[in-house]
Design a protein that fits this description.
heterodimer, A: alpha+beta, 10 strands, B: alpha+beta, five-stranded antiparallel beta sheet, Clathrin_a/b/g-adaptin_app_Ig (chain A), membrane (chain A), GAE_dom (chain A), protein transport (chain A)
Chain lengths: 939, 160
């Protein structure tokens, strides 16, 4: 409780004069109908100075409960403090700890008093407990005491007992059931005030069970003569039928009779009861429609035309509360019923046109009247009247009135959207209001108002406002603007323009799926790609802090970098601009190195850089440098990418261009339908994969791609499962983007297909070993597909390099593709790499000759190099001596060794082998071991 | 329907709570905390309505006290403002220029008055005079009981 400081200030003040602010200004007594706006909003400091002299009165006036208890006290030596003293003691506490101590002491005293069964103090105890309860301390031990008080005979005890019951208990507590009997007795009491207490308690906290038990008593009380009991019974019945709607029919005829009363309290309660009956029961509402419409209209007429009635007068209007309730009930009765609607037309017109609108009470009635007109089958004239009232409300200076007007216009839009459209400019102004409640309402209304004709100007207005709006409103505003843009864009250029604007103003608030959609749109518009990348580049120069703008820009530069530099597809409206290759690389480099860039963005940067190194061969060196700096990144994802890409640039120039080809175009309609589907359930990667229309059977969990038709999938799947990256949804679309185009790429030629296969596997590293040896895979490319995922998990990162080595040797010598069994990287660690290549004599399928090549990856030379191998029993192994036992450092030399393997169960069991390599590094012995499971099938 | 009524001081202290919908004790504390954060921070010229968890909270400040009532989306906010004012006026009549201290030391009286104005989250009486009369009558009954008890205790003490 940080109240301590505040309170200590207060107590200082108290020594001079208690802070005492009258809640209402004195003028109130002379003016019985003050406008709510004129009511005081004093600041505390002012009020302290003007603190009144009635303080002593509060202290000394003997109205409080404990005087009574003191009088009742039979034991003059009782130690309990009085309620007022306890409150004073608590208020005097300067710290929360002090307060807790006082409360603890009081609670202990109350507990012991309760356990001693001290009747005289029990109601004082309950009063104290209620105060303690308000402070937020547990008070459950007083619940039984409340029940005891209720069961006692006197009115004072019952009064405090029922109050305690309502405050300390709620309807879910089982203790409450114990009070049913007392309630039943009190409902039949001869004293009307005791009946009133019981009704009040029942109305406020009764549970469904109690409602069933006591409904007959309440029903009986509805027919008594005393208006005080009648109105309470009516409200109690409301609670009962809300809890147990089945009981509604029992109440409908007594409720009808209440409407004939003259007493306003009974009328108000009766009308409210009828409204609730209409809500729960069709029968009751038909019954009321038939029998009561006339009576209700008469009531409304009477109070509309009544002369000044001081008892019920508020702001010159007789009983606005009754007004409002009758109007509400008439709405229930007139809804969907033409006859009733016609019957009440006149009186509604009278209320709508005659009610004074300069005071809150009058406006409250008008508001309710408008709602009724909108809710029934009103004539068009009446509706025009209603809309005009709303128009007047909307231009009111009072924020409350404007708020309700906006609220009401939302309902009116379904009735008469043209009329609401007329207020468009005013509503748009409300979006810019300083009041959050009004802004929110107005924004929702604007969203409903947008149609094809006004979408452009409205979007412009909203985007203009986005620039200056409050930070905490930007989220709501951005998402609404984005959905308007998406929903109403008729031309792609407009859509791209607007999205770029939103991204640069509030890119941090744009949801991932929104900018994904933008990328899809751009990739689908070949004639606008150049334009898009240029405008994104320009926007990026101005606002590089907006995450989603940065991400879209990076993606586009990666894909369409050459369009940026070469000014491809310049539109007439564009201003010419010159961007050099190094400018484009600059953008990526600055993003990559910027301190606030997240991992997702950095990963995208690396990919874009790789793509640029192929698009801009002269910049390749620089790109390589940038990528190299991330080889030591502490983020696994970045390190991995950097190493892989580095190796692509360094060693695989020949395949690089096919590796980093432009992304295949994603079908927009597929994307949209999937987005709609996946946005419902929390987008789960697996789930959306199953929804793939193409029937591609890919599985992405753990990054394992089954040999289905969608290999590129993981390329942009930035949040790999093993690295926790915050963007859980971003990947979703991107891999979709890729996988849809998959069929294209595989048909476009073997080269690109092999590229994609490799890329798939680049990212499936680090997955658990998976044997995928399907013998029917004959082609070398398919072979790779199978080999690669079998990589050893511990050597994941570097292994890729080898993959590509293998590929390179394959790709560069087309002739080498003829052997059925491609070479494999049998083993790879940070220090050593072993590759196997295979030869077979066609007449002896079970015999394979393996040429092992050993390469030293470390910077020190190895001596005494010995390779050993072990095989299962069904295989025979014959090792030939190696050509050397000295292996120079850094791959500068190789050892080769040949051995022959005979698989006695050829065609039934695949090869497997355990290996051990021993060598010395500067005279220290080293040992490496491993298992080879990734032999090509068919050996 | 009014789901609950909360009176908050400017410092966020609860002065009165009345729950017409079932809220457990823990939920009540959460609600009060959330609402005091929402309402006490609002500027003076803003509208008196706050949207909160699918409900609307109508509040009105009188000197150092905020009177808050939580209602359904389709209830009449302007009317609730009138009900709050109705309540305050009755309190004012009863205490005679009511202030926050009255409500602290006589919180139970404020509850009695509220119980004559609202039941089951619905308005019970639109006449301030009637409410005043009913409260006065019940206060008199308490006074009478007190006097009787006093005279009995006197009789006992005299007899001893």
């Amino acid at each position: 409780m940080a109240d301590g400081v505040v309170r200590s200030k207060k107590t200082q003040n108290k020594t001079v004069a208690r802070p005492r602010t009258a809640l209402l200004t004195p003028f109130l007594s002379s003016n019985p109908c003050p406008d709510l706006d004129l009511c005081p909003r004093f600041s505390l400091s002012e009020s302290r100075r003007s603190s009144s002299s009635r303080v002593a009165g509060v202290e000394d006036e003997g109205r409080t409960l404990e005087d009574f208890s003191a009088a009742l006290a039979m034991n003059p030596f009782s130690s309990g403090t009085r309620l007022r003293d306890m409150i004073k003691a608590i208020r005097a506490c300067k710290t929360a700890a002090e307060e807790r101590a006082v409360v603890r002491k009081e609670c202990a005293a109350i507990r012991s008093s309760i356990s001693e069964n001290d009747q005289d103090y029990s109601h004082r105890n309950i009063a104290k407990l209620m105060f303690i309860h308000m402070l937020g301390y547990p008070t459950h031990f007083g619940q039984m005491e409340c029940l005891k008080l209720i069961a006692s005979a006197g009115f004072p005890e019952k009064r405090i007992g029922y109050l305690g019951l309502m405050l300390l208990l709620d309807e879910r507590q089982e203790v409450l059931m114990l009070v049913t009997n007392s309630l039943k007795q009190d409902l039949g009491h001869t004293n009307q005030y005791i009946v009133g207490l019981a009704l009040c308690a029942l109305g406020n906290i009764c549970s469904a069970e109690m409602a069933r038990d006591l409904a007959p008593e309440v029903e009986r009380l509805l027919l008594t003569r005393d208006p005080n009991i009648k109105k309470k019974a009516a409200l109690c019945s409301i609670r009962i039928i809300r809890k147990v709607p089945d009981l509604a029919e029992n109440f409908s005829s007594p409720a009808t009779s209440l409407l004939k009363e003259k007493h306003h309290g009974v009328l108000i309660a009766g009308v409210q009861l009828c409204t609730d009956l209409c809500k729960v029961s069709e029968d009751a509402s038909n019954h009321l429609r038939k029998n009561c419409t006339e009576g209700l209209v008469r009531i409304l007429k009477d109070i509309c035309n009544s002369p000044y009635a001081p008892e019920y007068d508020i702001a010159g209007i007789t009983d606005p509360f009754l007004h409002i309730r009758v109007l509400r009930l008439l709405r229930m009765l007139g809804h969907g019923d033409a006859d009733t609607s016609e019957y009440i037309n006149d009186i509604l017109a009278q209320v709508a046109s005659k009610t004074e609108s300069n005071k809150n009470a009058g406006n409250a009635i008008l508001y309710e009247c408008v709602e009724t007109i909108m809710g029934i089958e009103a004539t068009s004239g009446l509706r025009v009247l209603a809309i005009n009232i709303l128009g007047r409300f909307l231009s009111n200076r009072d924020n409350n009135i404007r708020y309700v007007a906006l609220n009401m216009l939302m309902k009116a839009i379904s009735v008469d959207s043209q009329a609401v459209q007329r207020h468009r400019t005013t509503i748009l102004e409300c979006v810019k209001d300083s009041d959050a409640s009004i802004r929110k309402r107005a924004l929702e209304l604007v969203f409903l108002l947008v149609n094809d004709t006004n979408a452009k100007p409205l979007t412009k207005e909203l985007i203009d406002y986005l620039e200056v709006s409050d930070q905490d409103f930007k989220g709501d505003l951005t998402s609404k603007i984005c959905s308007i843009i998406e929903k109403f864009s008729q031309e792609k250029k407009w859509y791209i323009d607007q999205m770029v604007k939103v991204l640069s103003l509030a890119g941090n608030y744009v949801k991932d799926n929104v900018w994904h959609a933008l990328i899809v749109a751009i990739s689908n518009a070949p004639d606008l790609q150049g334009y898009s990348v240029r405008s994104l580049y320009k926007a990026f120069q101005l606002s590089s802090e907006q995450v989603s703008l940065v991400q879209v820009t990076i993606w586009c530069i990666g894909e369409y970098g050459e369009m940026l530099v070469n000014n491809v597809g310049v539109l007439q409206v564009e201003e010419p601009m010159t961007v050099t290759e190094s400018d484009a690389v600059d953008v990526l480099e600055s993003c990559l190195t910027h301190h606030s860039t997240d991992i997702t963005t950095q990963s995208m940067c690396l990919i874009a850089l790789l793509k640029l190194s192929s698009r801009f061969p002269p910049s390749s060196g620089r790109v390589k440098e940038i990528i190299t700096t991330h080889i030591g990144s502490v983020v696994l994802e970045l390190q991995q990418r950097a190493i892989e890409f580095n190796s692509i640039i360094q060693r695989h120039q020949n395949i690089k261009s096919s590796l980093v080809e432009r992304m295949p175009v994603l079908d927009e309609s597929t994307f949209i339908s999937k987005r709609a589907g996946s946005s419902q359930a929390n987008i789960s990667t697996e789930k959306s994969n199953q929804q793939l229309p193409s029937g591609a059977s890919l599985k992405l969990s753990n990054g394992v791609a089954k040999p289905a038709a969608s290999p590129l999938v993981d390329l942009l799947d930035l949040s790999l499962d093993d690295t926790p990256v915050p963007t859980s949804t971003s990947n979703d679309f991107l891999h979709d983007l890729l996988d849809v185009g998959l069929t294209n790429s595989s048909s476009s030629g073997v080269a690109s297909a092999s590229g994609t296969d490799i890329l798939m596997d680049l990212l499936s590293i680090g997955t658990p070993v998976q044997s995928n040896t399907t013998p029917e895979n004959g082609s070398s490319i398919k072979g790779f597909n199978d080999i690669l995922p079998i990589a050893k998990p511990n050597t994941a990162t570097v292994q890729v390099v080898d993959l590509l080595d293998g590929l390179a040797s394959n790709g560069s010598h087309p002739g080498a593709q003829s052997p059925v069994h491609p070479s494999i990287t049998a083993y790879q660690s940070s220090t050593l790499k072993i590759t196997f290549s295979f030869t077979k004599q066609p007449d002896k399928p079970q015999v394979t000759q393996i040429h092992a090549t050993f390469m030293n990856l470390s910077s020190e030379a190895y001596t005494d190099f010995i390779f050993q191998a072990a095989v299962p029993k069904f295989i025979q192994l014959h090792l030939d001596p190696a050509n050397s036992n000295h292996l120079p450092a850094s791959g500068n030399g190789r050892i080769t060794q040949t051995f022959t393997i005979t698989n006695t169960q050829h065609g039934q069991k695949p090869l497997a082998m355990r290996i051990r390599i021993a060598y010395k590094v500067s005279n220290q012995e080293r040992l490496e071991q491993g298992q080879i499971n990734n032999f090509p099938p068919g050996l | 329907m009014i789901h609950f009524v909360i009176l908050l001081s400017r410092q966020g202290k609860v002065r009165l709570t009345k729950w017409y919908s079932p809220y457990q004790q823990k939920e009540r504390a959460t609600v009060i905390r959330e609402l005091s954060g929402l309402i006490l921070s609002r500027g003076p010229k803003l509208c008196n309505f706050v949207e909160w968890k699918g409900y609307k909270v109508v509040y009105r400040r009188y000197a150092s006290l905020y009177f808050c009532m939580c209602i359904d989306q389709d209830d009449n906010e302007l009317e609730i403002l009138e009900i709050i004012h109705h309540f305050v006026e009755i309190l004012d009549r009863y205490f005679g220029s009511v202030c926050e201290l009255d409500l602290i030391f006589n919180f139970h009286k404020a509850y009695y008055i509220l119980d004559e104005i609202l039941i089951a989250g619905e308005l019970q009486e639109s006449s301030k005079k009637t409410v005043a009369r009913l409260i006065a009558a019940q206060d008199t009954m308490v006074e009478t009981a007190k006097e009787e008890a006093g005279s009995i205790s006197n009789m006992i003490s005299q007899a001893m």
